[in-house]
Automatic annotation (TrEMBL):
It catalyses: geranylgeranyl diphosphate + 7 isopentenyl diphosphate = tri-trans,hepta-cis-undecaprenyl diphosphate + 7 diphosphate. The lineage of its organism: Archaea, Methanobacteriati, Methanobacteriota, Stenosarchaea group, Halobacteria. It is an enzyme of class 2 (transferase). This is Tritrans,polycis-undecaprenyl-diphosphate synthase (geranylgeranyl-diphosphate specific). GO terms for molecular function: ditrans,polycis-polyprenyl diphosphate synthase [(2E,6E)-farnesyl diphosphate specific] activity; magnesium ion binding.
C-alpha cells in the first residue's frame, strides 16, 4: 500500500514538473559521478556500478528526446581515470567497447536520429575501444536529429593546453600571424568539439564542482549548473526535470535583467534626445527670426515646456516668489528628524 502511494505521488510530481517546463536547453552536459560509490554501498564491485550507470545513460537519452533537447554530452572517461588500477580499468574498457557497439546497432538510436561523436584524446584509449568509437561514429554518421557526444580520455585543462601549444607551434613556424589569433583560431584546435555551446551542466553524486568539463564551451557560455546528491545509477527523471527547471529559472532571470537594461537604455537615450532638441531650439531662436509658437509646437513635450518657461521671465520670477512665499515656509517641517 505504501509503495503504491509513493508511486502515485511520484507520478503526480512528475506531471507537475513537466507542466512547469517551458524553456528547454539545447545542449546538456552531464558529469556521471558516483558509479563506484553506488556499487561499494551495495557490496558490489566497481564494474557493477558502471553497468548500472550505463542503464541510466539510456534512460537519459529517452528523456532528452521527449523534451526536445538537441545535444547531450556525457563525461564517460576522464584523463584522471587512467590512474585507476588495472582490475577496474579493464572491465570499464570492456563496458565502453560493448556499449558503443550495442548503441550503434540499436534500432531506436536510428529511429531517433542519434549521431554519436567522441571528444577527447581518444588515441590514448586501448585499440579495441578506439575501434568501437570509430564503428559507432561511422554507423550513426548520417543521423542528424540528436547529437550524443561521449567524452573519452577527456580533460578540460589538457584540451586548452593542447590548443595553446598548437597555436604557438603554428606562430613559430610562420604559418599563423599572432594578430590573427581569435576565437575561431582556438576552436579549430580544440578536440572534435560539440556542435553547440553548453546551456546546462548536471553533476550527480553530491560533489559541487565541474571538474574542468568543457571549460571553453560551458564556462564561456556561462552555462547553468545543477548539482544533485543521487549517484549516477540512481539519477531519476525527477532530478533531470529539476535540472531543466534550474536552467529555465536562470534564463528567466537573464531575460528580466536584459529587459531592465533595455528600458534604462531607452530612457537614457530619450533624455539625451530631448536635451539636444532643446539646445537646437535655443540656437535656432537666437539666430533665426522664427515664430516662437511654431517652434514650441515642433518640440517634444518637455523641451517645449522648458522653452516656454525661458521665454517668459515673469513666469520664472513668479515661480521663484511662490517658492519663497510665507505660506510655503509655514508648510515646511520644523526639523529633519
Amino acid at each position: 500500500m505504501l509503495d503504491r502511494l509513493r508511486d502515485l505521488t511520484q507520478r503526480a510530481y512528475l506531471r507537475h514538473l513537466r507542466r512547469e517546463i517551458e524553456d528547454v536547453p539545447t545542449h546538456v552536459a552531464i558529469i556521471q559521478d558516483g558509479n563506484r560509490r553506488y556499487a561499494r554501498e551495495r557490496g558490489d564491485d566497481a564494474p557493477d556500478g558502471h553497468r548500472a550507470g550505463a542503464a541510466t545513460t539510456e534512460r537519459v537519452l529517452d528523456w532528452c528526446a521527449d523534451l526536445g533537447v538537441a545535444e547531450l554530452t556525457l563525461y564517460a572517461f576522464s584523463t584522471e581515470n587512467f590512474e585507476r588500477p588495472d582490475d577496474e580499468l579493464v572491465p570499464l574498457f570492456d563496458l565502453l567497447e560493448d556499449k558503443l557497439r550495442d548503441f550503434a546497432d540499436a534500432d531506436r538510436v536510428h529511429e531517433q536520429g542519434v549521431r554519436v561523436r567522441a571528444i577527447g584524446d581518444v588515441d590514448r584509449l586501448p585499440e579495441r575501444v578506439r575501434d568501437a568509437v570509430a564503428y559507432a561514429e561511422r554507423r550513426t554518421a548520417d543521423n542528424d536529429r540528436f547529437t550524443l557526444n561521449v567524452a573519452l580520455a577527456y580533460g578540460g585543462r589538457t584540451e586548452l593546453l593542447d590548443a595553446a601549444t598548437a597555436i604557438a607551434r603554428d606562430v613559430d613556424a610562420g604559418d599563423l600571424d599572432p594578430s590573427d589569433v581569435d576565437v575561431e583560431t582556438v576552436e579549430d584546435r580544440l578536440y572534435d568539439r560539440p556542435v553547440r555551446d553548453v546551456d546546462l551542466i548536471v553533476r550527480t553524486g553530491g560533489d559541487e564542482r565541474t571538474s574542468n568539463f568543457l571549460p571553453w564551451h560551458a564556462n564561456g557560455n556561462e552555462a547553468a549548473v545543477y548539482f544533485c546528491a543521487p549517484y549516477w545509477p540512481e539519477f531519476s527523471e525527477v532530478e533531470f526535470l529539476r535540472a531543466i527547471r534550474t536552467y529555465q529559472s536562470r534564463e528567466e532571470s537573464w531575460r528580466r535583467a536584459r529587459a531592465e537594461r533595455a528600458v534604462a537604455l531607452v530612457r537614457a537615450v530619450a533624455e539625451v534626445e530631448i536635451a539636444e532638441a532643446h539646445a537646437v531650439a535655443r540656437r535656432l531662436r537666437d539666430r533665426l527670426p522664427l515664430d516662437a509658437d511654431a517652434l514650441g509646437a515642433a518640440l517634444p513635450g518637455d523641451a517645449q515646456r522648458r522653452t516656454e518657461a525661458e521665454d517668459d521671465p515673469a513666469a520664472g520670477g513668479a515661480g521663484d516668489a511662490s517658492a519663497s512665499s510665507p505660506g510655503d515656509r509655514d508648510a515646511e517641517p520644523e526639523s529633519a528628524d
